Amino acid sequence: MNKAEDQYPVQSGSTFAKGIFIGGLLGAAAALLFAPKPGRELRGDLSEKVGMVTDRTKEVAAVVSDKATELAKTVSTKTSDIAKTVNQGRNDVMESVRKASADVADEATKATSEVASASEEAKEDARKELNSTSL
């Protein structure tokens, strides 16, 4: 590398693009200022362009606002539907658990009764056997 390359290194592509963009803006501003139009006409043109940009910005803002409101309503509706579905599922599960619990309680009651009956029968059989052996 020579001395000039060391002093002035090559800039990156993005720096070059920024330079072109800034140069274009400065050139456009200079063209407007040095245009062969009188000051009033130039100011009128600039005012008209600014008005058009402002109107277009308001239109875009209105469209964005409408879309955002519509999206918010859609999200609210979907969320409400999901909440209803989840709540219904929860109710179904709770009802199934209640039924299963009642069935288990009934089976336990039946089993208790059967065990008590079997125990009573075994007791009677043991008494009879004891009485028959002691005679």
UniProtKB/TrEMBL annotation:
<keyword id="KW-0812">Transmembrane</keyword>
<feature type="transmembrane region" description="Helical">
    <location>
        <begin position="16"/>
        <end position="35"/>
    </location>
</feature>
<feature type="region of interest" description="Disordered">
    <location>
        <begin position="99"/>
        <end position="135"/>
    </location>
</feature>
<feature type="compositionally biased region" description="Low complexity">
    <location>
        <begin position="110"/>
        <end position="119"/>
    </location>
</feature>
<feature type="compositionally biased region" description="Basic and acidic residues">
    <location>
        <begin position="120"/>
        <end position="135"/>
    </location>
</feature>
<dbReference type="Pfam" id="PF12732">
    <property type="entry name" value="YtxH"/>
</dbReference>
<keyword id="KW-0472">Membrane</keyword>
<keyword id="KW-1133">Transmembrane helix</keyword>
<dbReference type="InterPro" id="IPR052928">
    <property type="entry name" value="Desiccation-related_membrane"/>
</dbReference>
<dbReference type="InterPro" id="IPR024623">
    <property type="entry name" value="YtxH"/>
</dbReference>
<protein>
    <submittedName>
        <fullName>YtxH domain-containing protein</fullName>
    </submittedName>
</protein>
